[in-house]
Amino acid sequence: MITKRIIECVPNFSEGRDLGIIRQITDEIEQVEGVKLLDVDPGKATNRTVVTFVGEPEAVVEAAFRAIKKAASLIDMRKHKGAHPRFGATDVCPLVPVANISMEETVKYAHRLAERIGKELNIPVYCYENAALKPERRNLADVRAGEYEGLAEKLANPDWKPDFGPAEFNPWTGAIAIGARDFLIAVNFNLNTTSIRRANAVAFDVREKGRPLREGNSIKGKIKKDKEGNEIWIPGLLKGTKAIGWYIDEYGIAQVSMNITNISLTPLHIAFETVCEKARERGLRVSGTEIVGLVPARAILDAGRYFLHKQQRSLGVSDKEIIKIAIKSMGLDDLKPFRPEEKIIEYMLESDVKEKKLIDMSCSDFTYETASESPAPGGGSISAYIGALGASLGTMVANLSAHKPGWDNRWEEFSHWAVKGQNIIRDLLLLVDEDTRAFNQIMEAYGLPKTTEEEKSTRQKAIQQAMLYATQTPFNTMEKALEAFEVIKTMAELGNPNSVSDAGVGAICARSAVIGAFLNVKINAAGLKNKKLAEDFIRRGNEIERKAIEIETEILQMVNEKIGNI
Question: Which helix H or strand E contains 433, and what residues bound it?
Fold first, then answer.
């Protein structure tokens, strides 16, 4: 379950030969809590190292700044030679949204990083791609034109004043480009052929650049040109993609090797479907898909939902099930096992979290943990869990209804409700652990020192903040459990009649979640010094509880009537 905001950072450093320097730079990244170093790829010919790391936005920006600062102190651009275009010690540093964060938000973090580099390190900074502050600076090639050797002249040109930092040439560090771009997926589509020429033909059909228009439509014909003498190209089908055909000795097959540079324009599953279609037209078949490196969860989840929709099956199933459908539909395990915890960025980060979560326990372990002498988990966590079970029962009825024989034309209707139920389940499960964190925060606040007047004041503020958190959390459970009634009631009315009793049990669970969470709201609100705020919690809580009891009564009456008619 992915809840954190995650961005990726891919800085390119102008050093690819001295591993000692590279190590010092990456050490700066690894020292920042909340980031994970994924890859370090040095190149001797380019004299350039591409580093990839991910984490929560604030931590990633801090790690990027430290790495850039270290690179500025270690890399002397006056001595740099390499095959790759460059104009600074840290040449480029793009930020990439991965999970629970928009491109707009990512751009703000890129600007924050750029401004800090300009102010604190006195390095000229240009912003490019989505972070560009001027349209003419969106293309990295334009920003870096002239490279390091032409940088002094560029900085002297008022039209090329840096977005941040001084318009002065520092021969040691050069300049840096800070950007925000979409995630790049490197993917290979396996073909049932050994022919590179045929694989290339499919690649040219689909890649954005396409293929040149030749005289006589022959692959050996001369490329046609327009009146201005420019080559004429036939564009491919997929925007934001680059592709080529090649043969892989290790597997004994040809592949269409593709970079998807904009997964918003061309999602992974659309690329797969299009390659399959063009391969089929040429008498070929795509036997599977190989993801190179890592992939964001949304790419796989979107693919799974796409194929479920094609099968006219409910989309309101767990992420685990959706990912399984994506793996099987695109043959992601054709050449080797596809393990989500190793290939999906967010899952890999979750596997590193050492925190013991209640929702990761077995049912029996959770039960006995609750029964132990520890005061947490307590009633708040149990209320959230009961609410999740209630929403689960409503969702189950929706999914059973979507698959009911004779109701095939209603699958989308019930899929809609199942998806809604899954979202409520997810939120309530998060509140299971959130309630325990809230309790622990209160205990920590009470444990603060209280000798001096300043310590007493600090302790009291911490207690009140913790009390507010501990009141808001079960109140959130109340609100979310109340939402579950919409799904449950609809399923009791319209869902599979053979499962109507499950909807009834779901209503009982949801009501219990509301009433149980309200007890926690009341006991914690009593500790708030802001009485107006406390009274507001109680007033709104009473209304939610009243509605929950009222709706549960309606549902149970409906359920019992239907059971009586069976």
Answer: helix 411-446
Q: Concatenated DSSP letters for 297-340? A: HHHHHHHHHHHHHHTT--S-S-HHHHHHHHHHHHTTTSSS---H
Q: Would you say 427 and 388 are in contact if contact means Cβ atoms under 8 Å apart?
A: no
Domain ranges of the chain: 6-180, 185-351, 356-565
Catalytic annotation present for 159: no
Residue 256 CA to residue 35 CA, distance in Å, equals 33
225-259 burial, b for 16+ CB within 10 Å, e for fewer?
A: eeeeeeeeeeebbbebbbbebeeeeeeebbbbbbe
How do residues 308-349 score in pLDDT, each as one tens digit?
999 999 999 999 999 999 999 999 999 989 999 888 988 887
- Rg of the chain, C-alpha, whole Å: 29
- The CA distances from residue 191 to 202, 250, 307, 479, in Å, are 10, 14, 20, 51
Catalytic residue flag (residue 91): no
Contact 269, 306 (CB under 8 A): yes
Q: Which among 234, 185, 174 is positioned nearest to 206, based on CA atoms?
A: 234
- Who's near 219: CB < 8 A, 6+ residues apart? none
> In one letter, which amino acid is 212?
P
Q: Are 314 and 395 in contact (CB under 8 A)?
A: no
Q: What is the largest CA-CA distance in the chain?
A: 91
**pTM score over 0.85:** no
pLDDT value, residue 212: 86
Query: Which CATH code, of 3.40.50.1970, 3.30.990.10, 3.30.930.10, 3.40.50.970, is assigned to 6-180?
Result: 3.30.990.10
Which helix or strand (DSSP H or E) is residue 389 part of? helix 379-402
Distance (Å, rounded) from C-alpha 301 to C-alpha 278? 24
Ramachandran bin of 524, using left for φ above 0, alpha for ψ from -120 to 50, beta for the remaining angles: alpha
Is residue 41 classed as helix, strand or coil in its secondary structure? strand
* Structural class in CATH, domain 185-351: alpha beta
C-alpha span between 508 and 212 (Å, rounded): 66
Question: Which one is catalytic: 182, 319, 433, 435?
Answer: 435
SS3 of 201-219: HHHHHHCCCCEECEHHHCC
Please enumerate in sequence order all residues whose Cβ is within 8 A of that of 70, keeping only pairs 6 or more positions apart, or say none: 24, 25, 28
Of the candidates 425, 459, 420, the one whose C-alpha atom is nearest the C-alpha of residue 442 is 459
- Helix (H, G, I), strand (E, B), or coil: what is residue 130? coil
Q: Which of 75, 173, 186 is nearest to 120 (CA)?
A: 173
- Tell me if residue 365 falls in helix, strand or coil: helix
Selecting among 18, 84, 309, 403, the annotated active-site residue is 84
* Closest to 379 (Cα-Cα) out of 465, 439, 424: 439
Please state, rounded to an integer, the average pLDDT across all residues of the chain: 93
SS3 category, 7: strand
The pLDDT tens digits of the residues spanning 153-207 come to 999 999 999 999 999 999 999 999 999 998 889 899 999 999 999 999 999 999 9
Beta strand pairing status for 125-129 and 176-180? parallel
Supply the pLDDT for residue 186. Answer: 87
Amino acid occupying residue 493: E
Please tell us whether the domain made up of 356-565 is placed in CATH 1.20.120.680.
yes
